[in-house]
Model the fold of this input.
Amino acid sequence: MTIQIRKGKRATEPQCLGSQRSLNSEDLLFPNQTGDSKAAVYFQLSNGRFRPPPAHRLIAHHIVDTIAPIFFRVSRTMWLPLRLTLLLLFLLLSPRALLRSGSAAVVSGEEEEFHEELLLKPLPDRKVLAHFHFHSIAPPSKSNGRHHHLFPKAISQLVLFPSSVPFAMWSDLDLILNFLFRLLNNCFSSSRKYDVFLIVFALIGVIVGEFLSFGQVQKFRVKEMELSFTQGRWNYERWGGFDPISSNNAKPPGVELWAVFDVPEDQVDAYWKNLTNSLSGLFCASINFLESSTMYSAPKWSFRITPGRLRYGTLPREAVCTENLTPWLKLLPCRDKAGLAALLDRPSIYKGFYHSQRLYLTSNASVPAETVSGISLEQTLTVVLQPNSPSSSSIHSGESNFQPSWSLSSIFGRKISGKCVLAQSSIVYLQLEKSIFSEQKDNMDNGPNSLASEGFAGGSGFEMSLDPDIVIEEENQSQHKGSSVLYGFWVEKYNESQPFDLGLKWKYPVFWSSRQAPLHASRFLMGSGNERGAIAILFKSANSADSSSGSRHVSDGCELQVDVFQVVPWYIKVYYHSLQIFVDDEAKPIGDFVHKIQVSPSKDKTSPGMMEMLLKLPCDVRSAALTLEFDKGFLHIDEYPPDANQGYDIPSAVISFPSFHSVMHLLSNDSIRKSPLLSRFQEKNRVQSYTEVLLVPLTTPDFSMPYNVITITCTVFALFFGSLLNVLRRRVGEEERYLKAGKKKGWLRVLLSRLLAKLRGKPMEEPDQPSSESAPLIGKKLVLKVILVAVLAVAWQFYST
Done:
């Protein structure tokens, strides 16, 4: 793409500001800009056609034409120096000011949005689920550039902005650059050319820096990304596996990261490595380990249908602590100082049974401008806590299934003193299963209003401390069992003098069960020893009505589709030809149930093994199992982690059911449409679950052997050099004379003489030393000792190597 500038008349070249003749500021900036002689700039595309200048560029030119002459007149009147005049002119005509003023008329009145919501849900096993949902939206606005009011800047840099923005900046600033260069050409004969050169080059450098910094926004070109930090494992059998929370927010232990890039396929790996290093520094985690080709894979169709541009990686052993939560909270406009995030007390969160913080980023910046919806950032925090209710345990000590009463202050130790002032909405939802109201079927038929009144007025088995502002009932087209009711509370009505503290009190024991996925998936290891083994994935029927509500009934020819996505490290040598399938405890041919399979074998120290499989099982299946045999590889001593004896982790397998979707059918109204959380629940997402993380013991060397070798080697060398120095420095004749003198005196006389010398404080008289000529320096014994030590050293060196 080239830029062609056509002008009606040749403009008079401006002279230097330091010349003898004073110039008119209008002629200096925009000479001969009257009538048809104004500069008309067109963009010549590669196909030869021309495009007229955009509206915001014409507005920017109009601003320059109007304000700049006035500015120069005021500067001459106030006798401002030349440097100050040019610097003020640059601030007036800066790229950011031109871009914001020019694009303000183009971009509509869209503003950034921030919503905060909290979902509370009692679980059947006497626990409470708290799901925090924070949603930030940045509209497609060229006036924002790299700066936002609510949206976090660190996240916006991960996304691809429209490529027309930098090009539009060049079209807006061509007038300033042309003026600077024409001014530079006419300053050679000026006495103040040094000052003008300095100012002009400074202006050009700052302008170029603006353009280069604008290009840094596109350094990752992420179209879609999800990052999660999880501690604990989601209990699918007790907490459910069919609802939107368990399908979208239940994540495997450790760190999980996947991203879709808007770049050619041959550049995806390079962008993935840069992204992992950036996220590692942003969230204070070891995500940079995922940059290695042995730690990530490229799923084709089983995980998400984005062939070639998707990368997936996990760190099962990554520890999650407060240093990961603090950067996550800093992305919120109010952080944890106000709003619903003020409930996030660190001790209360990390003492729970399950904790998962998730960040989901989407952008439609690569599509045409008329369909761009901006950047969307979802921050969710899912916590499963055990409420402490001494009153309920003391009154109903004999009832083991009695649900404990709880409140926000008893669970988190804090109350909500109002919403975040920057949030457009702040809502707390309480979700209860309809099976709790099974004893009052008449109230269900009367509609949600009567159901709400009976719920908190005492007609049902529970009592709420506050009256809900809205009641939303889930519509289940097939049957009422398994649906739920949502009670909404507006947080904006409360303040510090009247804080929000929702409480739920149970009157008598209630029983219900969460909605389950069609099949429960579990994974385990088979075999023994450090040489071979096998991986087994077991599917068991949930035996619930919810599993058969996926638009099919059990009949002849009914099929249940199951997607299996599994990644194994390169040191686990999986033999994919050893795949076996057992249906209802009977071995079956693979071709009868495996509809589609794609295998990517592992390469030593290069890439992990990956398997994608689509199973079609009968709807009335009770159990199914898959087995794969593998060999355990050997690692180099430098590749072992510090805790090598603990074992090595195989990441969780992803199990999904394409024909089943976790969606909530809610009555459509304005409250639901304005709620990002409820809108998310109404999206159709296939049911998905994760298996356990496997711990594989590998052959581990004895890491104490290097210590033992170093110890014995140092001991031998110490003895060798010590004996050698002792032999070389010892004088045999002198020692013999001392021995003879001692024998003549006797040991008693020597002892008495030493004692007397000690008492008198005088040194003991030593015998006269013989002359050096009397005793030979080298004797036969010395030579024999040296030869013996040398022979021992040579023998040790020969046998040790």
Q: What stands out?
A: DSSP finds 22 helices and 29 strands in the chain. The chain has a mean pLDDT of 75.
